[in-house]
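Handout for the seminar on molecular recognition.
Each group receives one record of this type.
Step one: identify the two inputs.
Step two: read the structure output and locate the region that could contact pyridoxal-5'-phosphate.
Step three: write two sentences on what you found, then compare them with the reference statements printed after the record.
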Amino acid sequence: MDSRLSARALVDLLGLWRTTEPAYDALADAIRLLCLDNRIAPETALPAERELATALAVSRTTVAAAYRSLRATGHIASRQGSGSVTRPLGRTAAARWFDREGIDLQQASPPAWPGLPGVIAEVAGSATALVSRSGYDILGHLELRTAIAERYTRRGLPTSPAQIMVSNGAQHALNLIAGTLLRRGDRVLIETPTYPHAAETFRRADARLVGVPVTVEDGWDLDRATQAFARTRPVLAYLMPEFQNPTGRTMTAAERAVFARAAHDAGSALIVDDTTAELAIDDPLPPIPAGLDTAALRVGSLGKSVWGGLRIGWIRASEETIRRLRAARASFDLGTPDLDQAVATRVVTRLDEILPQRAALLGAGRDALGDALAARLPSWSVPTVRGGVALWVGLGAPLSSALVIDAAQHGLHLSPGPRFAVEGGQERHLRIPFTAEPRELVRAVDVLAGSWERVTAGDRVTTAAEERDGAGHALAEALV
Ligand SMILES: Cc1ncc(COP(=O)(O)O)c(C=O)c1O
């Protein structure tokens, strides 16, 4: 049976969709992007025209015209009994060309640390000792938890191994936290723009999200944050205080103090996501700044600092919270693979040696991307960032979705600004990761310059076949 998307769910996904005229074109494009990002899965029945028209407060003619346009480009088909159903997007000759030549900047995933294969080989050599363990260990290896705790302690946040649970990456950690600590209807305060899969995790736990804006220019909106804490009393507040993904901003001491106080007064627990926190490019890694650790849960990962494929993350929390998470975890999964934990134990103790190499790699990408953007797209606002994985570029016009659709047709795959928004908006921004090789980033900017010329000239209508091929390739499974 097809899955069905309610009008309300589609309205939530669409956010601020009406960025161009005519409205039916804007609506069709917004739905195409949702298909492109795989946020609407193939074989999903869209809401009936009348229902969607009411939910969007537009005329039924507008929705009918948008659906007609989507049918013409092969994104949806009419199916008896189900109405308009999204189609699986085919892999054609052009899509295969993209496979060879295309550039995928939807994920901000740096390549593996070059020393990793050596560590894996070493661990494989001691496999006999490893397989003598029981294999079911919900908290994680004591050696690994000790290594993680010692690293926190050395960085200025005293931590015991009993305060650590090892997870299968930070995303899994967020799921465990949301699934254990949230109840339906709880409020979760979250930055906007934010890391999209975190927002999805909290939504899936039926939480209600309260967005607090953060901008490249001004950082966190402290008035909004203070009001949001006081007014909505969120159970959790999810923050990335260092090298926030996607803006790259780092909280000042004053910003930290405001969040700590407001969270304390509202009785909210903070979740600090450290996934990108150690990716400083220009400065030595400072001690963990004080201020946000009261009642904080921290989530960490080796995904960016070592390799995403290792799937090792962790939660740092009070011993009591770890006990709660441990009790709840078995229904999610029965622990983290032993082999990966053994690799991670060796790697965590070597992070001081690994991180400067990452800084050099990320710095080269950032500088190449920044230089290419300054040369080819001088009207864009390109932030100065001192770490992290991406540039949150200001376009100066609400054309992010149109730009991403055009670029996908020319072999460059990015995620549009609204993908990072919590309550709509962000059409004026584009996240460009600098985790790829400098040469590839320069090629990406070439494509973007061409796309920008076309979308600003209003020439963004494409043939049905072209669009289908681009979308077929760009079915994004994950965005990191
Ligand atoms: C802020 C943030 N948190 C969590 C994750 C997920 O990390 P992991 O690969 O460890 O699941 C990412 C990945 O991009 C991220 O950027």
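Reference statements: Residues 100 and 411 are 10 Å apart (CA to CA). Residues 169-171, 195, 240, 245, 273, 275-276, 301, 303, 308, 313, 480 surround pyridoxal-5'-phosphate (CB under 6 Å).
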